[in-house]
Design brief:
The chain is α+β, with helices and mostly antiparallel strands. It has helices at residues 10-22, 41-46, 71-82, 91-120, 125-148, 159-168, 182-192, 195-201, and strands spanning 2-6, 26-30, 54-57, 66-69. It is globular and about 50 Å long. The relative contact order is 0.16.
Length: 204
């Protein structure tokens, strides 16, 4: 059984979506980051970086329990465990991981900064413009990839799609009309119809 320690953020929702898609049984443990629960001694023992999500898998590697933090690492672990949503070898595996890293290194940090300045510091015009401009650039990169492929990593739905979807779901904070990135909109609407995505988004 997998224990999921999470909250209703894009990074948290990546993991609940993946667990639903992979049909892996799990128990949810809400960690209310608005109340600072991520700084508790119990949580820090699992993740010294005090960030959600974290998983504990009692049936881990080689029969031993596994505790993991960092959402990208968790997605790879879960996909490998279920042998789905990430090719086990070859070019397609590395192309999927490439776009997962695009989310981890670009979409997450830049969209997250845009969220912060839109919500809490909109008066800081330089910072807001800087991060919004970069967010829009990343949408264009994503749109270009999806113009050539049905899904982010290629022809198959994968953890790369799962990683990016919850961030795009907050497009209202990004000052972007999805009609301006039509391939992203097509992809976003398609994923939004998946029952597992809907369940994963509604866990918290």
């Amino acid at each position: 059984m997998i224990d999921l320690y999470s909250w209703s953020t894009p990074n948290g929702r990546k993991i609940s979506i993946a667990l639903e898609e992979l049909n892996l049984g799990y128990t949810l443990h809400p960690v209310d980051i608005s109340k600072g629960e991520q700084f508790s001694a119990e949580f820090l023992a699992m993740n010294p970086n005090n960030k959600i999500p974290v998983i504990r898998d009692s049936d881990g590697v080689d029969g031993h329990p596994v505790t993991l933090f960092e959402s990208g690492a968790i997605l790879v672990y879960l996909a490998d465990k279920a042998r789905r949503l990430l090719p086990v070898a070859g070019r397609a595996r590395y192309e999927t991981i490439q776009w997962l890293m695009f989310q981890m290194g670009g979409v997450g940090p830049m969209f997250g900064q845009t969220h912060h300045f839109q919500r809490y510091a909109a008066h800081e015009k330089y910072s807001l413009e800087r991060y919004t401009t970069e967010t829009h650039r990343l949408y264009k990169v994503l749109d270009g990839q999806l113009a050539k492929n049905e899904f982010v990593g290629g022809d198959a739905y994968s953890i790369a799609d799962i990683a990016i979807y919850p961030w795009v779901a907050r497009f209202g904070l990004h000052q972007i009309d999805l009609a301006s990135v039509p391939h992203v909109k097509r992809w976003y609407d398609t994923l939004g119809e998946r029952p597992a995505v809907q369940r994963g988004m509604e866990v918290l």
